[in-house]
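Bumping with the actual sequence this time:
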Amino acid sequence: MHRTPRSLIPPAARPRIIVSSNSTFTSRRPFWIRHTEHAQKMAPRTSIDEFKELVNSSNRILALCGAGLSAASGLPTFRGAGGLWRNHEATSLATPDAFEEDPSLVWLFYAWRRHMALKAQPNRAHYALAELAKKKDNFLCLTQNVDGLSPRAGHPESKLRLLHGSLLDNKCFDECGYVDRNNLSDPVCPALAAAAEDYPPDQTLPLLDPSVPVPPINVADLPHCPNCKTGLLRPGVVWFGEALDDVMLMGVDNWIMQGPVDIMLVVGTAAAVYPAAGYTRKAQRKGTAVAVVNPDPDSAAGLTQKDFFFQGDAAEILPRLLEGVIGKMEDKRLTDE
């Protein structure tokens, strides 16, 4: 492959909105904090009954979801213990340059992540949001997760935006335009079989043991693009240094601008990274009530009396919050649980 490393592309030629690996666009404080003493003293509401009434009477609802949505599904975090995968910083493998330098290693990392995602099952929070999408015509869910669990819970595609892409999609690294969506093959190809092995809980997968050499993989045996016949296929996620989909972002902006947003649900994320943080600010400027579901009590910082805070696991709380619209989850047949 002959590609110009992204680090050599002139800044003027790069896309406008990128994912940063050095936390340039992140903050430990939730995005909704108001920087006034008055705002800090106003505690958010915690009444489930009050929130149910608001949901029942609401027309336009926007949800923003992060890793906490999938916590009950048992998925490991992206960075893992200590931020390392084998002896590699997980973030160092999530770049176009890393793929160009060692596509076999990067594919092993993502094939393992795919395997873990496919082993996991959607939890009650995924199903609750999927049911809300079916019941409310003007509901839109933005997810920063790439695990594919929301689509597998039956969330209507028209009401779901995968901000950072999906582990289950593969696309051409040479950018010919080919995308293989929702590929459930595990492993993606025979050469990556080591990433799809299962071992007893008390045993370490050899692939995850830094003392065990990485299985040799010939680049010719990795997935190749069937369209252009020249490029490798790569995971369909947004890597650090890459732009989010401009068309998708414009569509989200247009949806927010179409009218008042009654509720902004923020589930399992501090939403401190753009563009996610910007969406909520736009909604708040329209007078939107923010409802945060998060086990971290610090996530309530800066919320006002108009807002809601529910501390705990989204899989336990969301079905209760949305019960007035979706019915009792116990009465639903969740085939994947």
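The tokens above came from a reply further down the thread. The longest strand covers residues 165-172.
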